[in-house]
């Protein structure tokens, strides 16, 4: 997995227009979702045996992707709550 790029500060979400939030969401979820899909395919592909070390690396990458998605959901939830208070 490539190194995660610098993610948007959650406080900056408050200043975004709805269209910008959608653009940010696309940016934030694209890499983790893509990684999860490719790693799941690798785990379920019968053609290429995977070593124990590969399994550990795959699961670590998948765990990092899930953590990133979780952070994005938290940012979106905070953004939405802030919008409701306006």
Major beta sheet summary: none
Shape: elongated
Unreliable stretches covering 5 or more consecutive residues: 1-6
Order of helices and strands: HHH
The radius of gyration computed from the alpha-carbon positions, rounded to a whole number of angstroms, is: 16 Å
Give the termini distance in whole angstroms: 39 Å
- Find the structural class using helix and strand composition: mainly alpha
Account of the 3D structure:
The chain is mainly alpha-helical and 86 residues long. It has 3 helices and no strands. The longest helix is centred in the last third of the chain and has 34 residues. The radius of gyration is 16 Å and the shape is elongated.
Short description:
With 86 residues, the chain is mostly helical. The protein has one domain (18-85).
